[in-house]
Amino acid sequence: MTPRDRLLAVAVAVAWGLNFVAIDASLDQFPPMFLVALRFALIAVPTLLLVPWPGVPVRWWLLYGTGFGILQFLFLYWGMAAGMPAGLASLVLQSSAPFTVVLGAVLLRERVSGRQVAGILVAVAGLAVVGWQRWESAALLPFLLTVAGGLGWAFGNLGNRLAGAGRPLHLVLWMSVVPPLPMLAVSLGVESPARIAGSFHGLTSRTGVEALAGLAYTVLVGTLLGSGLWTALMRRHPASRVAPFSMLVPVVGITAAWVLLGEHASAGELVGSAIVVAGVLSAGSRAGTAGQGRAPGTEEAPGARSSCAGQGVTPATDVPQLAMKSGYPNVPGMYSVATQTLPEASATAAE
């Protein structure tokens, strides 16, 4: 990679890491499930009007949109609204990487090397340390919800992998069409129309302005700009060279939450976080098994290599390649509409 492309990869990781702080600001104004619907609706409308259909099987598009768009951000936003710190959320959402490898091995018969198994076990041990620390502080539920978000992201990765889109960014954008209506229905049933309507009051206050700025950041910077740059990098370089930069996302997320939100992680949480990062990096190391053991009918489509997981956050996984073909985010969204994980966004999200 050229120095310029390395700087771009770092810039994307920074954008996705800050996405979690942006999500936190938006959750101060909007209820979590409605915020998911609103975030994706802002992308879905122009996508329907301007972006060509990516030409993938509808069932895999729906799986991608349901796992990455609905389940990931439903649980991530719910967990953060219930008390999951933004910085720690950026780390725990990396659980999508080992989940993706395991689901790929079980459902798609992707071969998993011994090194990957060891890395997964290390990452799970790190998550267990973080979970134990959260349980000690009576805040286990937000942690478990965020882990569930990582599992949803992993299922979205399967849909993205099986779709094999020739134009990955188009698929990422069309993924945003899936969540708005289901999430609006859930919000109306769980959060009530009165609470939704009340969230639009006080938008000119400091909290309201920060919430709108956070939403704009998630959509424009975390998802569209971050996804676009990541897709370009994945087209120019091997996934194994680009993907490790995604591990900077939780580093940025935790640092930004400390500086901007005053969040403090315990020593045990920091140790567990370091273990998770080490495990994910080990599981994502190149092992030469990519593309082996695929289920019949899941051949890689031209251009699919350019996909990468993230919404904000992208699993640093190269083998099986399916983890590199997820969608961020975004975190939170991710990637923004991140996260992260996008195959290019990421993490659309939170990520």
Automatic annotation (TrEMBL):
<feature type="transmembrane region" description="Helical">
    <location>
        <begin position="60"/>
        <end position="80"/>
    </location>
</feature>
<keyword id="KW-1133">Transmembrane helix</keyword>
<feature type="transmembrane region" description="Helical">
    <location>
        <begin position="141"/>
        <end position="159"/>
    </location>
</feature>
<feature type="transmembrane region" description="Helical">
    <location>
        <begin position="86"/>
        <end position="108"/>
    </location>
</feature>
<feature type="region of interest" description="Disordered">
    <location>
        <begin position="286"/>
        <end position="316"/>
    </location>
</feature>
<dbReference type="InterPro" id="IPR050638">
    <property type="entry name" value="AA-Vitamin_Transporters"/>
</dbReference>
<keyword id="KW-0472">Membrane</keyword>
<feature type="transmembrane region" description="Helical">
    <location>
        <begin position="210"/>
        <end position="230"/>
    </location>
</feature>
<keyword id="KW-0812">Transmembrane</keyword>
<feature type="transmembrane region" description="Helical">
    <location>
        <begin position="171"/>
        <end position="190"/>
    </location>
</feature>
<dbReference type="Pfam" id="PF00892">
    <property type="entry name" value="EamA"/>
</dbReference>
<dbReference type="InterPro" id="IPR000620">
    <property type="entry name" value="EamA_dom"/>
</dbReference>
<feature type="transmembrane region" description="Helical">
    <location>
        <begin position="32"/>
        <end position="53"/>
    </location>
</feature>
<feature type="transmembrane region" description="Helical">
    <location>
        <begin position="117"/>
        <end position="135"/>
    </location>
</feature>
<comment type="similarity">
    <text>Belongs to the EamA transporter family.</text>
</comment>
<feature type="transmembrane region" description="Helical">
    <location>
        <begin position="242"/>
        <end position="261"/>
    </location>
</feature>
<protein>
    <submittedName>
        <fullName>EamA family transporter</fullName>
    </submittedName>
</protein>
<feature type="domain" description="EamA">
    <location>
        <begin position="7"/>
        <end position="130"/>
    </location>
</feature>
<dbReference type="InterPro" id="IPR037185">
    <property type="entry name" value="EmrE-like"/>
</dbReference>
<feature type="domain" description="EamA">
    <location>
        <begin position="144"/>
        <end position="281"/>
    </location>
</feature>
